[in-house]
Amino acid sequence: MSVRVDEEIPLARPVLGEAEEQAVVDVLRSGQLSLGPRLPAFEQAFARRLGAAHASAVSSGTSGLHLALRAVGVSDGDEVITSPFSFVASANVAIYERARPVFADIDARTLNLDPRAAAAAVTDRTAAILPVHIFGYPADIPAFEALGLPIVEDACEALGAVHGDGVAVGARGHPAVFGFYANKQLTTGEGGIVTTGDAAVKARMDSERNQGRAPDMGWLDHDRLGFNYRLSDVACALGLAQLERLDAMLADRAHAAALYRAALAGLEGLELPCEDSAGDRRGWFVFVVQLPRGVDRDATIRALRERGVQSKPYLPAIHLMSYYREAFGHREGEFPVCEDVAARSVALPFFPGLSESQVERVAQALRAVLGR
Ligand SMILES: Cc1ncc(COP(=O)(O)O)c(C=O)c1O
To answer: Are 215 and 198 contacting, i.e. CB atoms less than 8 angstroms apart?
Structure first.
C-alpha cells in the first residue's frame, strides 16, 4: 500500500523570477548573445562581491577547473593531490592534462581533504594541490598553503562560504572555481567562474577559454592551444540577475538548514553536517546526512520516495568508481574515512524557500523509515 502524501518534495529548485526573465529578454533584444558587455560586467560584479582581484567566466565548473590547473602549470606526468570525496570532475580535470589525480583521505568532521594526509602524499612529481570545499564548508586552505605548492580551489559548492580569518572562499588569490549548474547557490543553467589574484592567470584563462586567441588578435588567428569554454551573454545576464538576489538566497538556504537541524536533532545515530567552527562559515549548498551504520541506504531512499521525499546518495567515493578502479587500480580500504562517509551519505531536499512544513514532512518520513 502506498503511503504517499501531498506533492513530492524535490531535491533542488532554482529561484528564478522577473529579473532573470527581463535580463534574458534584454540580451536577446540586444542581438549580442556572446562575447558582449554582460561578460565583463558579470566577471567584475562577481569578483567585487567576493573581494577577489579578477574573475574569468567559463562554460562550467569543470572547464574552470581544467583551465585553472593549466594556469598553475600542471602537465603531462605530474601528480595532483585531491579529495576522493567530491564530484568526479575535480579529479577528472587532472587526467585531461595527462596528470595523475592522487587521492588522500578526508577529515571526518569537515569531510574536506585532510591537510596531514595530503602532506603525506606529496612526492617530487606533485605539481598542485586541489582541495574541494565540499558541501560549502571551507577547506583548510592556510594548512595547504604551508605545503608550498600551487593550489587550485574547487569552490563549485561553496559560494557564500567564509574562512575563519574573514576572507571569502575564493578570495585568497589562488585560482578558485565556482559552478553555476541549476542546483547551485547561484545558477546560469550551466556555467562557472574562476577567481584569481593574478592578472596573468586571468589573461591566460581568458585566452584559453576562447580558442587561444589573445584579446588584440584578429578573427581566426590564435597564438596558443585553446578550448571553447566561453560563457554566453545570455548566461552572464542570468548570473548578474542572480547576484542581485544572492544574499537573500543564501539566507534562505541557511534558514532551511537551521530548520533541518532542529527537526532532526533527536534522531538517534543520524549524523548532520558539521557546525561552523573557528570562524569558518559554510555557504549552504546541500543538506547531507549520514545514516546510522548498518542501515540499508538504497532501501531508505526508496522508502523516502514512497513518502513523497526525494533524496539521493551523495557523494560516492571517486576512487571506487568503475573508471578509476580500472584506470588506476584503486580498491576498497585505501581511504577509510571517505569510504565510511560515502557509503552512508544521503542528500535531502534543500533549496531556498523550503518551508517548515516540508522540513517537518522530511523529518517525519526519515523517522518512520529509520524506525526511530
Ligand atoms: C565539487 C564539484 N566540483 C566540480 C563540479 C563541476 O561543475 P560543473 O557541473 O559546472 O561542470 C561540481 C558540480 O557539479 C561540484 O559539485
So the answer is: no
